[in-house]
Amino acid sequence: MKWLEQQLAQWRGAGLVDEAAAASIAARYEVSSRARAARLLLVLGCVLLAVGIIWLVASNVELDEVGPFARIAFVAALWLGLVVLAEIVCGRERFGVLAGPLALLAAAAFGATIFQVAQSLQVPAYEPWLLAAWAAGALAYAYAIGSSGPLVLGVGVAAVFYVWLLTRDVGGGAPFVLVLGLATAAALTAAAAVLHHRTARARFAAAWRMAAACLALLALGAAAIPGLLEDATVPVLALLTAGAALAIAGGVALRADRLGRFELAVAAAVAVAALVLAAVAPDRTADAFAGERLPAGQLAHALAASALFLALAVGVALLGVARESRR
Q: Would 16 be classed as within a structural domain?
């Protein structure tokens, strides 16, 4: 608000606006700020409620008088009720601010419904394909109603599913596959962000771009942990997945603008850096977390990975400036 007051004073001094216009601009900005604050509080509240719904299903409380089908009916009714409520408030001037948070809560309740059905049908809880179903439903719901809340949830759940699926059966190579999986997921989500600029859902690009940045930072952040990538075994599935992700990113780059190509080049560079860091990782001869002195090779590897991480972090910040995004 102080910045706006300074700008309005300069505009009045230059004769660009009069006192009445300046007062009207200031009043509108104050109303907009309050609306954003209210929306933030509502989103935080809905996130806590979403966690509560998931926790309610995960706790699997045994009640003799409540059978499995009654539980499914209750959670499904909660999900459908939230969907209807979000549609009712959508477009209404007085309650429109509730539409986004309610849509996010409905997407979370959809996931709870999936896990409740799986639980009642004795499907193993530690099954990544349940997350895939949740992500697919959340993303479909987001694009159907044009809401960013379910989109963010769907992208996040899809990323967890993707990494889980890659690391589930790889044994000793799990740390490397985790790093490479995060890096290739960053390339895929960056490609999705660039593609959205040419569609009717262009504003969804921000969520995909934010996911790509977080995944890339997590990949290089994990690679910088001393000893994580030592003696890395590289499963063929991980390499094929990385190659397919880079090929998709390259295909998207052919039709992207200059800034889009830069985004995709950075995402591809993260995947290549993960491969190189794994290839040159030394054998573990000391435990950094036990306070032991690291040998020169392992210390150099950790410092190089940390330098790459910091360079990526600066690049992400500069990209935010170029895209005019405060995220």
A: no
Q: How many CB atoms lie within 10 A of CB 225?
A: 15
Distance CA 183, CA 276 (A): 12
Output the DSSP codes for 252-270: HHTTS-HHHHHHHHHHHHH
Q: Region 98-120: what's the mean pLDDT?
A: 86
Element (H, E) at 310: helix 296-322
Query: Would residue 30 count as lying in a domain?
Result: yes
- The rounded radius of gyration (Å) of the Cα atoms in the chain is 24
As for how many domains the chain has, the answer is 2
The residues near 313 (Cβ < 8 Å, ≥ 6 apart) are 217
Range of the domain at 195: 169-327
In the predicted structure, residue 63 carries a pLDDT above the cut 60: no
Per-residue pLDDT band for 269 (boundaries 50, 70, 90) equals confident
Among all chains, which residue has been given the structure tokens 């499904």?
Answer: 76
Q: Return the SS3 of 16.
A: coil
129 pLDDT higher than 80: yes
Q: Rounded CA gap, 106 and 54, in Å?
A: 12
Confidence of residue 140 (pLDDT cuts 50, 70, 90): very high
* Statement to judge: residues 128 and 182 lie in one domain: no
Cα separation of 47 and 75, whole Å? 17
Residue 164 within any structural domain of the chain: no
| pLDDT, tens digit (0-9, with 9 covering 90-100), for 213-252 | 888 888 888 888 776 776 666 667 767 877 888 888 888 8
C-alpha 218 chain-centroid distance: 11
Quote the tokens at residue 2: 């102080």
Closest CA to 213 of 190, 247, 180, 245: 190
Does residue 302 form part of some domain?
yes
Cα–Cα distances (Å) from 272 to 179, 244, 279, 292, 313, in that order, read: 11, 13, 11, 30, 17
Whether residues 68 and 204 fall in one domain: no
